[in-house]
Design a protein that fits this description.
Strand content: under 5%
Number of strands: 0
CATH architecture of the largest domain: Orthogonal Bundle
Shape: globular
CATH topology of the largest domain: Transferase(Phosphotransferase), domain 1
Largest sheet: none
Helix content: 40-55%
C-alpha cells in the first residue's frame, strides 16, 4: 500500500516471482522457452504458465486480471465450478473475456497496452455503478473502525454516568 500522498495506490509485487524480462546489458527481451515449471500460485497463474511456457509481461497482466476478478467477486469463477469441458468453464466466466482475450493475443515480447486495459476496468466500474473516489474500500473500513474506537473511548462509562447523576 502506498503511504502519504500515495495512499490511494496499490503496489502489487511478488519478489519471489519477479524477474527481469530484458537482458540488463543488451535490453533484449528474454527468449521464449518451453518446459518451464509452474512458479507461483496456480490459482492466479496464466494459462501459459500452466502449459510450461516461459512467462513474460503478457502473463503478468493475465495474472493481474485473475487477482482483480478475485477482488471483484470474492472468488474466481472456476473455483468449485462444475462443467464437463474447459470450453464450458470459459463460457461461464465471460465477464472478463475482453481482458483475457487481449492478454492471450499478446506476443511473448510485446508491450501490453496498459491504458487500454485500464479503460476496460473503467468501463466495468461504470457498468457496475461503482464510484471511483480514489479510496480503497479497506481504507474506508479502517477509518470507520478508528472513529468507532475513538467514540467508544470518549463515551462516558457506567461509573462516570453514576457520578454525574449523584452530582445533580
Amino acid at each position: 500500500m502506498g503511504i502519504g500522498r500515495y495512499c490511494n495506490k496499490l503496489f502489487l509485487i511478488d519478489f519471489g516471482l519477479a524477474k527481469k524480462y530484458r537482458d540488463s546489458r543488451t535490453h533484449v527481451h528474454i527468449p521464449y522457452r518451453k518446459d518451464k515449471n509452474l512458479t507461483g500460485t496456480a490459482r492466479y497463474a496464466s494459462v501459459n504458465a500452466h502449459l510450461g511456457i516461459e512467462q513474460s509481461r503478457r502473463d503478468d497482466v493475465e495474472s493481474l486480471g485473475y487477482v482483480l476478478m478475485y477482488f471483484n467477486r470474492g472468488s474466481l469463477p472456476w473455483q468449485g465450478l462444475k462443467a464437463i469441458t474447459k470450453k464450458q468453464k470459459y463460457e461461464k466466466i465471460s465477464e472478463f473475456e475482453m481482458y483475457f482475450r487481449y492478454c492471450h493475443g499478446l506476443r511473448f515480447d510485446e508491450d501490453p497496452d496498459y491504458a487500454y486495459l485500464k479503460q476496460l476496468f473503467r468501463i466495468l466500474f461504470k457498468k457496475l455503478n461503482y464510484q471511483y473516489d480514489y479510496t480503497f474500500d479497506w481504507t474506508t473500513l479502517k477509518q470507520k473502525e478508528t472513529q468507532k474506537t475513538v467514540s467508544l473511548a470518549h463515551a462516558p462509562n457506567e461509573s462516570s454516568k453514576k457520578n454525574m447523576e449523584t452530582e445533580k
